Amino acid sequence: MNSLFPNDTLQRIRSCGVIAVLVIDDAAHAVSLAKSLLAGGIDVMELTLRTDAAIESLRRIRSEVPEMMAGVGTILRADQIKVVADAGAAFGVAPGFSPGVVKSAQDQGLPFAPGILTPSEIEAAVELGCRELKIFPAQASGGMKYLGSISAPYNHLGLQYVPLGGINAANMVDYLRSPIVPAVGGSWIATRQLIAEQQWESIAANAKEARREVDRLREETQETI
Ligand SMILES: O=C[C@H](O)COP(=O)(O)O
Ligand SMILES: CC(=O)C(=O)O
């Protein structure tokens, strides 16, 4: 097996343009959260394994909000991959590159994007067969200028990068203009605090704002073709 993203999963991520990265403390909030994101036009989310509620939240969303594509983030150990795959995650990601985690994702057939920040990490990930990568922390490391520079030697490989870290409605379009970026990810749409306070309208409004940025960019690029 491999851990490549199937075309339809990648297409869904590209079409959404933004992955809502979530830290959820209470699985009872999961369904309302997913519905709020959908109301704002965001249908791809990443539940981070930073809290115990992430896996139960994934199960509830899969069963009650099937229109949402839910992946899992912050996968730090190889043994977590089976739990994530068994719970029905559409994909897995991590902030960094761990060969053991990548190999476990390949064994389980879970689409997986490791985090990279250096040429050596890109090369190690490519050597293991990865094509979809996360770049973290994107803004602090130099934003799209850094990503454009670091990715240049590998452009012939068709790698795809999802930037994460410090991204928001004001800077997301800088990344999305690049053909090597199918989507950005970020926690600004639904912060841990907004979720804990059940601020569903604010979350839907943030999602809508992000959606507007993606749509505006699409209109602009079509106009210039
Ligand atoms: O720790 C990283 C976050 O999950 C994603 O970055 P952000 O909070 O800057 O959006
Ligand atoms: C930061 C990130 O990429 C993750 O937690 O998976």
Defining traits:
binds glyceraldehyde-3-phosphate; EC 4.1.2.14; Aldlse_KDPG_KHG; KDPG/KHG_AS_1; lyase; 14% strand; 225 residues; globular; 4-stranded parallel beta sheet; binds pyruvic acid; 3-stranded parallel beta sheet
Number of helices: 10
Unreliable stretches: none
Bound molecules: glyceraldehyde-3-phosphate, pyruvic acid
CATH topology: TIM Barrel
CATH homology superfamily: Aldolase class I
| CATH class categorisation | Alpha Beta
Shape: globular
Count of DSSP strands:
9
- Mean of pLDDT: 97
From the alpha-carbon coordinates, what is the Rg to the nearest angstrom? Answer: 16 Å
Give the helix/strand class: alpha/beta
Lateral arrangement of strands in the main beta sheet? 3-2-1-9
Main sheet summary: 4 strands, parallel
Instruction: Estimate nothing, just give the exact number of structural domains.
Output: 1
Helix content class: 40-55%
Pfam families: Aldolase (PF01081)
GO molecular function, one term: 2-dehydro-3-deoxy-phosphogluconate aldolase activity
Subunit structure: Homotrimer.
Pathway: Carbohydrate acid metabolism; 2-dehydro-3-deoxy-D-gluconate degradation; D-glyceraldehyde 3-phosphate and pyruvate from 2-dehydro-3-deoxy-D-gluconate: step 2/2
